[in-house]
TrEMBL record:
InterPro entries registered for this protein in UniProt: GAF (IPR003018), GAF-like_dom_sf (IPR029016), Phosphatase_reg/MetRdx (IPR051330)
The protein, known as: GAF domain-containing protein
Organism: Apilactobacillus xinyiensis
Highest taxon listed in the record's lineage: Bacteria
Family membership noted in the UniProt record: Belongs to the free Met sulfoxide reductase family.
Annotated ranges, domain GAF: 31-140
Length: 148
């Protein structure tokens, strides 16, 4: 795979900023601005006390706030700690529909921190190549995580 310019830009945007909230906010705005044909991009954070994911900074339409660990595409990605790349969300058992326009979805686990979720109004939007690129972006975000 060639040089990931987007990854370099994201890294420059967040690497010197220690505030996780600010970095989540700017990362979701960055994804929405530079990835074509998406309608939602943002974070869900894992809350251990309730064993659930809770909505974090995002760009897009209003979304569901609480997602049980293991539920929907996000909960599955978190529980399995494995990227979920779904070509047609309507065929995914337990998919949680937040924006009716969403047709395909990619969710990257971020370890104990939570997940990064990106939705598209187009079926089959995310290729394996896109997945690798987005996983690199997620990894750049993980590297900036601080203890507070
Ligand atoms: N569709 C997700 C829920 C989050 S929204 O897409 C923003 C899911 O099934 O986990």
């Amino acid at each position: 795979m060639g040089k990931n310019i987007l990854n370099e830009q994201l890294s420059a945007l967040i690497k010197n900023e220690p505030d996780n909230l600010a970095n989540m906010a700017n990362t979701s705005a960055f994804l929405m601005q530079f990835i074509e044909n998406i309608n939602w991009a943002g974070f869900y954070r894992y809350a251990k006390e309730n064993d659930e994911l809770v909505l974090g900074p995002f760009q897009g339409k209003i979304a569901c706030v609480h997602i049980k660990n293991g539920q929907g595409v996000c909960g599955t990605a978190f529980k399995k700690q494995k990227t979920q790349r779904i070509n047609n969300v309507h065929k995914f058992p337990g998919h949680i529909a937040c924006d009716a326009e969403s047709m395909s979805e990619i969710v990257i686990p971020l370890g104990e921190f939570g997940v990064l979720d990106i939705d598209s109004p187009i079926e089959n939007r995310f290729s394996t190549q896109n997945q690798l690129m987005i996983e690199e972006l997620a990894n750049t975000f993980i590297k900036t995580l601080t203890k507070h």
